[in-house]
Design brief:
It contains 4 helices and no strands. The protein has helices at about 5-15, 25, 35-55, 70-75. The chain binds zinc ion (ZN).
Length: about 80
């Protein structure tokens, strides 16, 4: 096995999502920067939902669930696009 290959495998270990970062991947144990960002945004969203619930507003408004962010959304959120 070449040294380059070993390096690639090590990098893949630290990013389990393999280029598909999402809050779900973070939950699965991926700790790459993009997954951490996705998770942070996800928890912010959850907090906002909780706040809405306790606010006593309409409860049965349909909410579009995003369980994953696209790479583009994350990059835009980080101000990289
Ligand atoms: Zn990841």
């Amino acid at each position: 096995m070449s040294l380059v290959l070993i390096g690639v495998i090590r990098r893949m270990k630290s990013s389990k999502c393999k280029g598909q970062p999402s809050a779900t991947q973070y939950g699965n144990g991926c700790r790459c920067a993009l997954c951490r960002d996705a998770w942070r945004m996800h928890s912010i969203e959850l907090r906002q939902k909780e706040r809405k619930k306790s606010g006593g507003t309409k409860r049965d408004t349909p909410v579009v669930e995003h369980d994953a962010f696209t790479r583009e959304q994350i990059l835009r959120a980080r101000g990289m696009m």
